[in-house]
Write the structure tokens for this entry.
Amino acid sequence: MSADPPESSGVVRVRTDLVLDQLVSRLLGRALELDSEGLDPMAEALLEKVPGPVRLARLGYASRTAETEMFEAARQPKPWLAERVTSEAPRAELCRELAAEEPDEKPDPGEGSWRVPGPGGHVRHFLALAAADEVVHGDLNGESARRELSAGEAKRCFLYGFYARCCEEAASPAG
């Protein structure tokens, strides 16, 4: 049996079934609503560069928007990302690089998408898998995957869109 993380870590253990029921389903539902409303043409152009199903990247983008609506912590600045957004690296390359850093399994606190303020990397892990299930098996808007994606590939497509939205936030004057 593993020990609980120290209180100073800021990590709280939660039950997976509650995360899925209370957070993931609500975030995915809101992301689906946001995605149906359409995206800014510049965001759309960036998402078209995802190495996988664009629909999955769109849901990652919309999920980050849903996070900022639902969680005050998600609206906190990301100075580490703001520095990287202003560098010379093209944004699509940065999104691919950040998404590639995410492990296939749930990331440990401080790893991968945990660095982005909000509900946490464990929630995003389950959210990416739920979004992939919608896209690959739900055949939303007539788009189906040309091949089965591994969970890791699907997660990285989702996180590409997630990080595209994070980069927009970091680049904004308030970001």
